[in-house]
Design goal:
The chain is an alpha+beta fold and 615 residues long. It has 17 helices and 21 strands. The chain has helices spanning 34-39, 41-77, 86-104, 108-123, 130-146, 151-155, 181-193, 197-213, 226-239, 243-256, 261-276, 298-306, 330-333, 357-367, 401-414, 450-453, 535-547; strands spanning 159-163, 166-171, 322-325, 337-343, 347-352, 372-373, 376-378, 381-383, 390-395, 426-431, 436-441, 461-466, 475-478, 483-486, 490-496, 505-509, 515-520, 571-572, 582-588, 593-596, 609-614. Strands 3, 4, 5, 6, 9, 10, 12, 15, 17, 19 and 21 form an eleven-stranded mixed sheet that branches. The two termini are 13 Å apart. Its EC number is 1.14.11.2. It catalyses: L-prolyl-[collagen] + 2-oxoglutarate + O2 = trans-4-hydroxy-L-prolyl-[collagen] + succinate + CO2. It is found in: Endoplasmic reticulum lumen. Keywords: Dioxygenase, Endoplasmic reticulum, Glycoprotein, Iron, Metal-binding, Oxidoreductase, Signal, TPR repeat, Vitamin C. Belongs to the P4HA family.
């Protein structure tokens, strides 16, 4: 389906849930949508206000202590101060008996810190959970992998792709923001705790390097220390098979903490291993990158994230053209849609400026209160999964007249009935940090799918509109056709999911962040039985699809069938150029449609939205 933070797309079988929309944003899901990350700024502003009041209180208290100190010090600096003076003698005795006690046992300091703690406890329920830290850290690792980003560069706030001796700047943020030693340690520790030493080692190495450079400095907010980083890095190297590095780091640890008996035992163990196997001294462990998504097409997918693949250029293929489209609809005669043919097999078309800035903003506003973590089908259940990072909401056309107008526009362009029960409700998706959706089918591949229980028939087409753009990252990739289409703001597009034997699998490339809206017409979108059980109805439906002007005249080809995955879609988008802004795209034919959209804490893009409808 769509891009990603671009990495998203979900199973559409449920209508809007009833209840308070404020309950839509659960703790532990902040990282999965950039709009949730943006909302996290509000509680931090409240915390800043609390800390400001605390600091002002402490500054007043310290000014008063400084006054007392200067007063007493001035008496001691005068060596000629006569203690025989009854007044001085009295004040000396009084100070020592009560004034100093009042200073030392003053409640002002504890009252200030108590007010700060009470304020924090009131805000705490609105703060991200530890699961968000883990999710955000994994997103950084995903960006690191997909775009071949250098960890040292990321720590400095620089997004650079390093391939051999070639270094390419992928993204230049408006404000350079570097990571601290503790930040790098936390990312490395998330990988360490998962047993992922491929990612843990470079992040922990960067943490050790930064901690060494600031050793002796005390930062209140830090959770880790140089000793913690050395401890984790040493064991990570040991687990990776590099005993020599593990020994060296463990010995360095003992320089700072010589009484640590556990580390002393580890040193003896490593020395014994090296004595028994001298070759270990010079052996360098080759750490294999874990294939977390278990994708056979991972290399192809990531290559398409980084480039457009074999996407043809218009002047090279004359049959790729631009035109104005009305589909013989009176609705579009006075305002035809700008059409751009992007690819022939599979057939991919972009319809430009399909929605306006005002409409896109309104749709995002309608959906935002209802956003919940995107899920995929797992048997008869729907579950959040690591290979789909986004939040989504379902919108009925009764929510706002704008949605009714949008449905009319889509129907006029495609010739399809996009009103329920012939199509599902509009689904609005917002991708999060490193958001993506791995290869998937939009249509149901199992007879136990909820789509069949609802007697709606299977999906035959997906319509998708990009509601925002990205600064870097994100695309829709067809891995078997070896090309990708960058995200283009306000463009409208679609995918023919399956016609008889045809099927399209797609992937959302890792983006930084974005919005999309989509919809799914069901197989009964004509005035036929929605179960489509009658073979004649299916043949008729296929014939009618072939006659629609928006489908390609190119022969529909079945792609190499990839390994089936749960749910309908997943993925996001990488950086790339787009033909123009405000477009829709349609696709038909074989090819794996892949998309990933990675957003490193808004590192690589703005919040990205898209809207989809399937049927």
């Amino acid at each position: 389906m769509g891009p990603a933070a671009g990495l998203v797309a979900l199973l559409a079988v449920l209508a809007l849930r009833a209840g308070d929309p404020s309950g839509a944003a659960a703790r532990g899901d902040t990282f999965s949508a950039l709009t949730s990350v943006a909302r996290a700024l509000a509680p931090e502003r409240r915390l800043l206000g609390l800390l400001r009041r605390y600091l002002r209180g402490e500054e007043a208290r310290l000014r008063d202590l400084t006054r007392f100190y200067d007063k007493v010090l001035s008496l001691h600096e005068d060596s000629a101060t006569p203690v025989s003076n009854p007044l001085l003698a009295f004040t000396l005795i009084k100070r020592l008996q009560s004034d100093w006690r009042n200073v030392v046992h003053s409640l002002e300091a504890s009252e200030n810190i108590r007010a700060l703690k009470d304020g924090y406890e009131k805000v705490e329920q609105d703060l991200p959970a530890f699961e968000d830290v883990e999710g955000a850290a994994r997103a950084l690792m995903r960006l690191q992998d997909v775009y071949m980003l250098n960890v040292k560069g990321l720590a400095r706030g620089v997004f650079q792709r390093v391939a051999g001796s070639a270094v390419t700047d992928l993204y230049s943020p408006r404000r350079l923001f570097s990571l601290t030693a503790d930040d790098c340690f936390q990312v490395g520790k998330v990988a360490y705790d998962m047993g992922d030493y491929y990612h843990a080692i470079p992040w922990l190495e960067e943490a050790v390097s930064l901690f060494r450079g600031s050793y002796g400095e005390w930062k209140t907010e830090d959770e880790a220390s140089l000793e913690d980083a050395l401890d984790h890095l040493a064991f990570a190297y040991f687990q990776a098979g590099n005993v020599s590095c593990a020994l060296s780091l463990s010995r360095e640890f003992l320089l700072y903490s010589p009484d640590n008996k556990r580390m002393a035992r580890n040193v003896l163990k490593y020395e014994k291993l090296l004595a028994e196997s001298p070759n270990q001294v010079v052996a360098e462990a080759v750490i294999q990158r874990p294939n977390v998504p278990h994708l056979q097409t991972r290399d192809t997918y990531e290559g398409l994230c980084q480039t457009l693949g074999s996407q043809p250029i218009h002047y090279q293929i004359p049959s790729l053209y631009c035109s104005y489209e009305t589909n013989s609809s009176p609705y579009l005669l006075l305002q035809p849609i700008r059409k751009e043919v992007i690819h022939l097999e599979p057939y991919v078309v972009l319809y430009h400026d399909f929605v306006s800035d005002m409409e896109a903003q309104k749709i995002r506003g309608l959906a935002e209160p209802w956003l919940q973590r995107s899920v995929v089908a797992s048997g008869e259940k729907q579950l959040p999964v690591e290979y789909r990072i986004s939040k989504s909401a379902w919108l009925k056309d009764t929510v706002d007249p704008l949605l009714v107008n949008l449905d009319h526009r889509i129907g006029a362009l495609t010739g399809l009935d996009v009103q329920p029960p012939y199509a599902e409700y509009l689904q609005v998706v917002n991708y999060g940090i490193g958001g993506h959706y791995e290869p998937h089918f939009d249509h149901a591949t199992s007879p136990t799918s909820p789509l069949y229980r609802m007697k709606s028939g299977n999906r035959v087409a997906t319509f998708m509109i990009y509601l925002s753009s990205v600064e870097a990252g994100g695309a829709t990739a067809f891995i078997y056709a070896n090309f990708s289409v960058p995200v283009v703001k306000h463009c409208f597009g679609g995918i023919c999911i399956g016609v008889v034997k045809g099927m399209v699998t797609h992937f959302m490339l890792v983006v930084l962040s974005w919005w999309e809206i989509s919809g799914w017409p069901t197989s009964g979108y004509m005035s036929m039985d929605r179960n489509s059980a009658d073979p004649a109805a299916q043949a008729l439906k296929t014939k009618m699809l072939a006659e629609r002007s928006w489908w390609s005249p190119v022969t529909f080809q079945k792609s190499q069938k990839p390994k089936a995955c749960l749910g309908e879609e997943k993925g996001e988008l990488p950086s790339g150029r787009g033909p123009c802004q405000h477009c829709l795209f349609l696709t038909k034919g074989g090819g794996l449609y892949q998309g990933i959209s990675e957003n490193s804490s808004q590192t690589i893009s703005q919040s990205r939205w898209a809207i989809q409808r399937r049927g």
